[in-house]
Write a structure and sequence with these properties.
The complex is a heterodimer of chains A (353) and B (393).
Chain A lengths: L3 H24 L2 H27 L6 H16 L2 H7 L5 H4 L5 H23 L4 H21 L1 H4 L5 E2 L7 H19 L2 H11 L1 H6 L4 H27 L1 E2 L6 H14 L4 H22 L3 E2 L2 E2 L6 H16 L12 H22 L1
Antiparallel strand pairs in A: 1-2, 3-4
Helix pairs in contact in A: 1-9, 2-9, 2-12, 2-13, 2-14, 3-6, 3-7, 3-12, 6-12, 10-12, 13-14, 14-15
Chain B lengths: L1 H29 L4 E8 L6 H20 L7 E8 L4 H13 L5 E4 L3 H13 L3 E4 L7 H5 L3 E3 L4 H15 L5 E6 L3 H18 L4 E7 L7 H8 L7 E5 L2 H13 L6 E3 L7 H6 L7 E5 L8 H14 L6 H20 L4 H9 L4 E3 L2 E3 L12 E7 L2 E8 L3
Parallel strand pairs in B: 1-2, 1-3, 3-4, 4-5, 6-7, 6-8, 8-9, 9-10
Antiparallel strand pairs in B: 10-13, 11-12, 13-14
Helix pairs in contact in B: 2-12, 3-4, 6-7, 12-13
The chains are: A mainly alpha (353), B alpha/beta (393).
Chain lengths: 353, 393
């Protein structure tokens, strides 16, 4: 548990984050804000992925599927009724006349994803390793095919446009703080210790009296819940969703972020998501052909993907556990470092004397 | 040591990227007065690149030509071309960057409706014109908003043209339809073909409507059902995507079906002949944006210029569409006398009879889908041949 000092520091940290966001919102152009918001959404998605993939050891590839469920649920609930009538004339009456505030839409998105996780969890979580990965990938395919074919509710491949677009930094980073708090509490509870022991050695965990099915299921469902919430935020920010958007690519991007950052760490999720969102945007400047010190480079489309791929390979070779590994950020760590520094300084000044 | 080298390399790359960032910001300030910034958002990599790479080539060619002639009303065009990577987030981010950082007055590009929706929404929100060079879903402008225009015809127009060509030129009284059920594009084509064909020939003129799934490769069941019809149809309308049209044509011709086959612009691909084989040479017609063998000066000059610049013939009609998009935009800016997006919208709405490589473009009656002539092609000796231009009623 957090000491009183650490609690205070955490609250100060959140307040500082709020102030920084406020200032950024005042001075930044929309494009940069968009990237900052995207980082927030990606952190939510990767943190929830880390809970299943990194902490529990269930290598799930169905994350984009849960995102899709969340995005569609929230879209159908939050699009204004008049607009819905024009967009989706064949909607069942109760759904056509239903409009809820955004926060309720987010919660519904999470709950719906959780429900799906519960349904597929029972058969799928019996599998291990790559069998499980492939089965969850199968879930993603099913979600896409269903979304493409129930045209009366989803408009099929045409996609739903005109989502309200209320998402801003406050919604995203507010949700992020809540998500991080929930995940942190879960990981540090006895259930959290339980899932980690399952990851490390499931037979030993079982021998200790840990109910493997319940623990795995719980982690899977919580991960899906936040994936749904993240998907809803993502869809709202894009203002248009289509089954094509929730593709293998989307899943792989998230897995990539998680692997780069460090699968078994929440800090890793933050670092991975931030790094892998910013780098492609920076590399874009290289692609379009630039002039540096008199040298003109021709446009090299595809370069950013190449560099990114090389980066992934390099990280996997030199640091297979990801940038953060299983290391977590903590105030205590800082305090220790500070103390060490102070002691060092003291001893060196004593030597000088 | 190794790690240090790698780290150094990464830092170098990042520094280069950031340097590039700084560069584009500087050029913003220095030359803002005498240039018009136009965004070209095409998917240069990924699944869509076979359509979008020629599209950007055509677009660039037009920019170069216009700048050589002195620009628009004396202002040069500066092209901001970003890769959409066939990824919705990348497309949306790119559009946002063009609008906020590069301050473009208009964006053009994208051959797929989904990506055009994602990018168009951002342009619309910021009051920037978006001209899609290749997406043909007729409902797009209504979905996105009043700054969104289609440069190609909508799928409804080409399906109408197909129906009119079948009824008037091929003198067909009855039709059979085969549609890919998994695609919005094919479903839209089928819907509008049926609408126009039954309007001309009466409600029961479509004898059978059959469907298949995108992944199907064996069409014998559909062909048997067609053969089993008591009255054989005069034409076959097969709405399929580029990957399947050749396969279907081959299987139909191999099994002794000889009626004319008609399709949409999905047939405008070398795959039609490669997969269709000899069968494609017999009475296969399709509607598309332009014919490169069309003898008109406009088309031949474009083909010549394209060949001179890129050392190859235009790969498909999307090159011509990219080319037309830029000229259409330039035309609107010069008529507006200003590069203010609101003025450009006004001018675009008044576009009437603009002569492009892909036909005449008019935005009449408040529609932002052009009322445009459709080219009908056929296959002769493994080559596409121009049949006629149709302007559907």
């Amino acid at each position: 548990m957090l000491s009183r000092r650490d609690k205070r520091l955490t609250i100060i940290g959140i307040v500082v984050l709020g102030i920084v966001l406020f200032i950024l919102n005042q001075v930044m152009a929309d494009y940069y804000l968009r990237i900052i918001n995207l980082i927030g959404i990606n952190i939510i998605l990767v943190a929830s992925l880390n809970l299943t993939n990194g902490f529990t050891g269930i290598f799930s590839m169905g994350h984009a599927g849960f995102m899709a469920v969340g995005a569609y649920t929230s879209a159908l609930l939050t699009i204004p009724i008049t607009q819905k009538a024009a967009l989706l004339p064949d909607l069942p009456l109760w759904l056509a006349n239903l409009h809820v505030p955004f926060v309720a839409g987010l919660l519904a998105a999470g709950l719906m994803s959780m429900l799906f996780a519960l349904l597929i969890g029972y058969p799928v979580l019996r599998l291990r390793g790559h069998y499980l990965a492939v089965a969850t990938l199968g879930f993603l395919v099913i979600v896409r095919v269903v979304l493409t074919n129930i045209e009366s509710i989803t408009r099929g491949a045409r996609g739903i446009s005109g989502l309200p677009g209320v998402t801003n930094s406050w919604w995203i980073y507010g949700t992020l703080v809540i998500v991080m708090y929930c995940l942190w509490r879960f990981i540090h509870s006895s259930y959290g210790r339980g899932i980690m022991s399952i990851r490390d050695d499931d037979i030993a965990a079982q021998a200790l009296g840990i109910n493997i099915t319940t623990h795995k299921m719980m982690a899977f469902c919580i991960g899906a819940f936040f994936a749904g919430v993240g998907g809803a935020l993502w869809g709202d920010q894009m203002s248009v969703i289509s089954p094509n958007f929730f593709s293998f690519n989307q899943t792989f991007t998230l897995v990539e972020m998680s692997v780069i950052g460090g699968m078994g760490s929440m800090t890793g999720a933050v670092v991975g998501a931030a790094v892998m969102t910013i780098i492609p945007e920076l590399l874009r400047n290289l692609e379009v052909g630039i002039t540096i010190m008199g040298m003109t480079l021709p446009p090299l489309y595809g370069l950013s993907q190449l560099i990114l791929a090389a980066l992934v390979v390099i990280v996997i070779i030199f640091r297979p556990q990801g940038i953060m590994g299983r290391w977590e950020f903590s105030w205590q760590h800082f305090a220790r470092e500070k103390k060490k520094l102070r002691l060092q300084r003291q001893s060196s000044s004593e030597q000088e004397k | 040591m190794k790690k240090k080298v790698v780290a150094l390399l990464m830092v170098l790359v990042m520094a280069l990227a950031i340097a590039g960032c700084g560069k584009s910001d500087q050029s913003d300030k220095s030359a803002a007065s005498k240039e018009i910034k136009v965004g070209a958002l095409f998917n240069q990599t990924g699944d869509q690149s076979s359509l979008d790479v020629p599209g950007l080539n055509g677009f660039k060619l037009a920019v170069d030509e216009i700048n050589k002639k002195g620009g628009i009303n004396g202002s040069k065009i500066t092209l901001v071309a970003i890769d959409g990577k066939t990824d919705q987030t990348a497309c949306a981010n790119a559009a946002s960057k063009m609008v906020d950082v590069d301050k473009v007055v208009a964006i053009s590009g994208l051959a797929d409706s989904n990506y055009a929706l994602a990018a168009g929404a951002i342009a619309q929100k910021n009051g920037v014109v978006f001209l899609t060079s290749g997406a043909t879903l007729p409902s797009l402008p209504d979905q996105v908003g009043d700054h969104f225009y289609l440069v190609p015809f909508g799928d409804n127009i080409q399906a109408y043209a197909g129906a009119e060509f079948a009824a008037k030129d091929l003198k067909a009284k009855t039709a059979y339809m085969l549609t890919d059920k998994g695609m919005d594009y094919t479903m839209t084509l089928a819907k509008y073909f049926k609408e126009r064909f039954t309007k001309i020939n009466g409600a029961d003129s479509v004898l059978l409507e059959d469907t298949y799934q995108t992944a199907d490769v064996d069409f014998s069941a559909q062909i048997e059902r067609l053969k089993g019809l008591k009255v054989q149809p005069d034409v076959l309308y097969v709405a399929s995507d580029p990957s399947k049209c050749g396969v279907i044509v081959k299987q139909m011709r191999d099994r002794g079906i000889t009626q004319p086959i008609i399709g949409g612009d999905g047939y405008d691909t070398p795959l039609l002949v490669e997969l269709g084989g000899e069968g494609a040479n017999h009475d296969v017609y399709f509607t598309t944006h332009a014919s490169l063998s069309n003898p008109s000066d406009k088309v031949q000059n474009f083909v010549k210029a394209y060949k001179a610049t890129y050392n190859s013939d235009p790969e498909n009609a999307f090159a011509a569409l990219g080319y037309d998009s830029m000229y259409l935009l330039a035309d609107a800016i010069s008529r507006a006398g200003s590069s203010d997006p609101a003025k450009i919208v006004e001018a675009l709405n008044k576009t009437s009879g603009f002569e492009g490589v892909t036909g005449k473009i008019s935005y009449t009656g408040g529609s932002r889908v052009p009322n445009k002539s459709v080219t009908v092609l056929t296959v002769k000796e493994n080559k596409f041949e121009f049949v006629k231009e149709v302007l559907p009623e």
